[in-house]
Predict the structure.
Amino acid sequence: MSTVAATKDRLLDVGLVSSLRSRWRLVSVVALVVVWVVVWAFANGKSTLAIQASDRTDVHAWFLRRIASIEGADNVATSFLGAVSDGMDNVLLFLQQLFTVAEFPRPYPQIGWLGALAIACLITYVAAGWRSVLLVAPSFMLFGMLGYWEDSLDLLIITGVAVVIAVAIGIPIGVWMAHSKRASAVITPILDVMQTMPSFVYLLPFVILFSIGPAVAALVTLVYAMPPAVRVTSFAIRSVSGTTIEATDSLGQSRWQRLKHVELPMAKRTIIVGVNQTTMAALAMATIAAYVDGPGLGQPVLEGLRRGQLGKAFVAGLAIVIMAIMLDRTTTAASTRSERAARTGQDTGRARWAVLGGGTVVTVIAVYLSNSYVWANQFPEGIGIGQWISDRVDEVADWLRTDLSELTTGIQQNFTLHFLNPIQDLIAGSPWFVSGAALLVLATILGGGRAFFATLICLAGIYWLDLWNNAMITLTAVVVATAVVMLLGVVVGVWMGRSTAADRAVRPILDAAQTMPPFVYLIPVLVLFDANRFTAMVAGVVYAAPVAIKLIADGVRGVPATTIEAAESAGSSRMQMIFKVQLPMARGSLLLAANQGLLYVLSMVVIGGMVGAGALGFDIVYGFRQANFAGKGLAAGVTIVLIGIMLDRITTYGAQRADGTRRAAPATKKRFLSLTRANN
Amino acid sequence: MKVKRTRVLLVSIGLASAFGLSGCGGGSIENEEASGGEECGTIDMAINPWVGYEASAHVVGYVAESKLGCTVNYKDLDEQVSWEGFGKGEVDVVIENWGHPELQKKYFADKGGDGSAMNAGPNGNEGIIGWYVPPWMVEEYPDILDWQNLNKYSDLFKTPESGNQGTLFDGDPGFVTNDEALVKNLDLNYKVVFAGSENALIEGFRKAEENRTPYLGYFYAPQWFLSEVELQKVELPEYTEGCDADPEKVDCDYPVYTLDKIVATEFAESGSPGYDLVKNFEWTNEDQNVVAEMIAAEGMDPDEAAQQWVDDNPDKVDAWLGE
C-alpha cells in the first residue's frame, strides 16, 4: 500500500511542476501571438517578400549556373561516378535478366515465377525461420495474382541492391560515428540533409551524372535509405554497456577485437532494426524513382495517376503495401531470431539441416523448371484478381465523384476559409522581419537558447534563398497539418493504448496507410476535395498520422501498472485517468510524435505541390520539370531542408527541456529517432 | 553422416522427378520462336506524362514492332529528362514536343547546343493552349468567352485559394504556360493556382460540368477529354508574331503550336528503318484523341489500343511505312 501512496505523491508532484512550467510557457505564447496579430494588422501586407511562381531572382540564377556546371564538367570525379553507375547498371541488368527481363532472342527471363518463389522461400527460411516463409510465399503469389509479377520483382531487385549498398556503407560509418565525437558532429548534419532534401531536387542532377537506367533508381533510393542504417548502428554501438566494455578491455583486447567480439555482437539486434528501417525507406522511394524510369511498382502507380485510373494505381499500390509488410515482418523476425541464436548458441538441429537440404533440392528443381517451361516461367493469368479489384475501386471512385463531392467541397472550403487562411495570413502575411522575430521568440520559449540559435541560422538561410513568403506558406501548412495529426494521434493513440483489441484492429490499417504510395490516395482525395492546399494537407495527414498514433499508443501502454493502480484507487474517472495520468505520463512519446509528425508532413510538401498546395512544393516540381527553373527548385529544396532542421531542433530541444534531462539517455534515443522516418 | 545421406537421397529424387517432368514436354521454352528482326534493332521511346503523348508513342511503337520487327523500350520520363537522355544514348525519340526553345538551345546544333538531338518534323498534331470553361457556363453567361468580360465574372470563380480574386487553374508544372504574366499584363482580377496535373484539371472540369459549378482553367488540344465534355475556349487578345517574345510582357493568346518529333542525332544517322517510320509519322488531333480515349477512359492497354487503331487505319500506316 505504501508504494502505491508514494507513487500517488510523486504523480501529484510531477503534475504540479509540469503544469506550472507549462502555464508560464502558455502565457508567453499567448502574449506573443497577441502582439504578433496587432503588428500584423498595422503592417497591412507589406514586406512579405511574396514572389510569383514564374519569378526568379539572382540567387536562383546562381543555383542554375551551379547545376549547369556539373553538366559541363568532365573530370576525374564525373568519370568515376560514371563508372560507378555503369557497374551498378550491369549488376542490376544482370539480376533483371535473371528474373524479369527477357534477353533477346530468348522470349522469357531466365528464372520464372516458380524458381523465384522457391529461392525467396529458401532465403527466408535461412534468415528468419519457417514462420516467415508462411508470409513470404503467399506475398509472392499475390504479386503475381495482382498482375504485377515483373514490376514487383523489379522493385525487390532495386530495393535489395540499394539496401545491400546502404548497409555495406552505412554500418562502418555508424561504427565510426559511435567512436568519434568529431565524426558524429560532421556526419549528422549530412544525414539530416539526405533525409529532408526532397528527392525531386536531386533527380535531374543524378540523371546528368549517372544517365538514365536502373542504377539511377537505386542511387536515388540509396540517398534516402542509407541514413537510418548509419544512425541506428551508431546508436546501437553507443548503447553497448560500458561495464561490459571495461570488463573485456581489462583482458587486454585490441580495439578491433573489441569491435568484433563485443560491440558488434551486442549491437547486432538493434542494427538489424536499422536494416529494417533502411528497407522501409527504400520502398518509400519506389514511386519517386519511377519519375526517372526506375523499374518497379512505381511505374504502374504513375501510369494510373497519369490516366486518372484509380483502380490501376490502387492495385499496384496494394502490391507495394504487401511487399512492405512482408519485408518489415521478415526483417523483424530475422532480428529476434539472431538474438535467440546468440543467446542459446548455434541452433543447428538435425531437422533444420534436413529441411535446408530438402529446400535446396526443391529450389534447384523449381529454378530448372522455370527456366525450361512456360507454365513455370510466366505467372498464370487465370488466377489473377488484379482486374477485379481495380474495377471495384473504380466503381467506388465514381460513387465518390457523384454522391459525396458537394459535402466534401463544403468541408474543404470552411476549413480553408476559417482556419487555414487566418493562420497563413498571420505567418506569411506579416512583414518578414515580424514573422522572423516572432518565430525566434517562439523557438526560445519552447526550446531555449540552443533552439534560438538553430532557428536564427535556419531563418537567415531561408531569407537568403529568396523564397521567404513561400517558405512561410509551407511552414503554415506543415504546422496546421501536424496539429491535425496530433489530434488524431491522441484520440486514436489513447484508444489503442488502452485497448489491445483496438490496437489489433487498427494497426494493419496504419501499416497500410504508411506504406501505400501517397500518389495512390491522392486520386480519390483530389476527386473529393479538388486541387488546393487542403487536399495537400489531407495527403500529409494520412501519411504522418500512423507514426504519431503508434508512438502515442506505445507511450500510453508504457505507463507503469502501479501508477494506473494508484490512480484507480484514488477514484479517477476514465477522463481523469486519460488526461491527468496517462497522457501526462506519456509526454515523452507525445513530444516524439510531434517531432516525427512534423518531419513526415514536411516530407509530403512536394507531393502537395502537385495537387494545388503551391509554395515550396510547387517550386521544386517546377524546377524538375522546367529547365529554366532548376535553380529555383534547388533553392526551394534547400529551404525545405532548413525548415526541417529548424522544426526538428525546436521540438527536440523543447522535449529535452520538458523532460528536464539535458543529454540524458532517453534524449539520445530521441536524437536517433528524430529525422528518421521510422516504420514503428 | 546420416544427414548427408538424406541430402544425397533428396537430391537424386529431386533430379529424377525434374527430368521426369521435363519428359512430359509441352510449353518448353526452347520451342518458342522469338520475333524481331536484326536490322531494326531497338528504339528507346520516351513517354512524357500525358495520355495523348502515350497514344502517339504506342501507335508508332506498335507499328515499329509489328511491321518492322524493332524492339521498342518505353521509358517514363519528363520532357527535360528525356532531352537529357538524347546525349546519353538512353532516349531515341520524343514523339510529341511542345516548343521548348530553352531545351532546343541546349541540344540542337543549329541553336548553339551540343547537337545530340534534332528535329524530325511535325507529327501532324496542332497544339492549342488556352483558357477554358465548362459548357454550362456559356449557356448561362453567353459573353463569358471574351477575355474582356472575365473581370465582370471574377466573383463567380472565387475560391478559398484566391481570396478576393477569381481562380484560374493551371495544370502540370511541366506544361507550357504564360498565365501568370497574362493575368498581370491584361489586368485581370485573377490568381493562378496550379492544380498540379492533367488529371487534376480533368477532375476539376468534370465536376464543374456535372454539378454546374464555375471553373476556369488552362486546357489544351489534342485532348481526349474534350470529346467527353466540350469545354469552351475563352478568346484572348489575338496572337501576333513575337508578342510572346518576352515571357514577362506577354499579353496575347498562345500561338498554335506545331507539335513536332525530336530524335537523337545518333538514332537519325543509324540508318534504322525505325527512324524513317518516326520521320514519316503524322496524324491528326482526332486520331490521337481516339487512341487516348481508349487508354484513359476505357482503360485499355496502350498497345491494344494502338493495335486497334492501326487495324482500323491501314492507309495511314502504309503511308508512314512508305508503301
Notes: The mean pLDDT of chain B is 86. The CA atoms of residues 138 and 249 of chain B lie 29 Å apart.
